[in-house]
Design goal:
The chain is an all-alpha fold. 72% of the residues lie in helices and 0% in strands. It starts with a helix and ends in a 17-residue tail after the last helix. The chain contains six helices and no strands.
Amino acid sequence: MNASTSLPSRNLGEAVRRARSEPAYGAFLLLRIGFTVLPIVFGLDKFTNVLTTWENYLAPWLVDLVPFSAQQTMWIVGVIEIVAGLAVAVKPRYAAFVVAAWLAGIMLNLLSYPGFYDVALRDFGLLLAALTLGRLAFVYDPAWHRRTVPAGKLSAA
């Protein structure tokens, strides 16, 4: 077995060990996994409606506003949710706040007409969890840094 083959399992083992010994890292890891997998699952389900009929969650005024059918709108929502889940997998430091903003938008939609206040309250809890992931990511997910050229290396064009 070469080093590149054993590296992923060693990293996974290290992550599990660290999650067991550092509660904050364990919380970060659980939230990262949750906010990766669940948006992808919900996004995919927008195309199949196995879990629910997603169009029912769109406010009537929103359906009237968009130039697409309710189903087409939910397909767009599904793609956005899949991308959001993948973004959390890659860079939770930034993507967690995008997910929180997305959840705020969903809440506004649900609060704008009666019948789904309970779902909006649940989404508020998810929004708090996404914000928590974002804060934990400041500790456990390093920032992307722009590569800059030292001032002395710049030349006039």
